[in-house]
Amino acid sequence: KSARSQAMLLYAQGRASAQESGRAVTRDFTGNTALLTATPRLLAGAGTLDTLAGPINLNTTYKVTVAGNPSTTLTMDPRGFSSSAGTTITFTRAGFSDSIVVSNFGRIVD
Question: Are strands 108-109 and 86-93 parallel, antiparallel or unpaired?
């Protein structure tokens, strides 16, 4: 449940940042590591995106593995809408799982 809460917090942070800054914000799980980025880059530095949060290794912190359907990447546009028709992120530990679903409107569905 803590990993699920962390993912929901990152998503809410990303959605708010997208709406406030007028930029696309992406929440991505690479393996079991969560990262929140925004484009275009506004802060000084190399590359084309700003890192807003992370990387946070959910396996190290909460001992969970992360899987996504259809993907573990979710981008919010400047209006806060999701980039896909719906995304389910599943967290598994010791044979038990919990998940969050993000609708294409950018809402988390319990």
Answer: unpaired
Determine contact, residues 65/59, Cβ cutoff 8 Å.
yes
pLDDT tens string, the chain, 110 residues long: the values are 888 888 888 888 888 998 998 999 988 888 889 999 998 888 777 788 888 887 999 999 999 999 988 888 888 888 888 776 678 889 999 999 998 888 877 788 76
Check whether the bond before 78 is cis (ω within 30° of 0).
no
| 22: DSSP letter | T
Beta strand 73-76 pairing with 24-30: antiparallel
Query: Which residues have CB under 8 Å from 28's CB, separation 6+?
Result: 34, 35, 36, 37, 72, 73, 74
Q: How far apart are CA 56 and CA 32, in angstroms?
A: 8
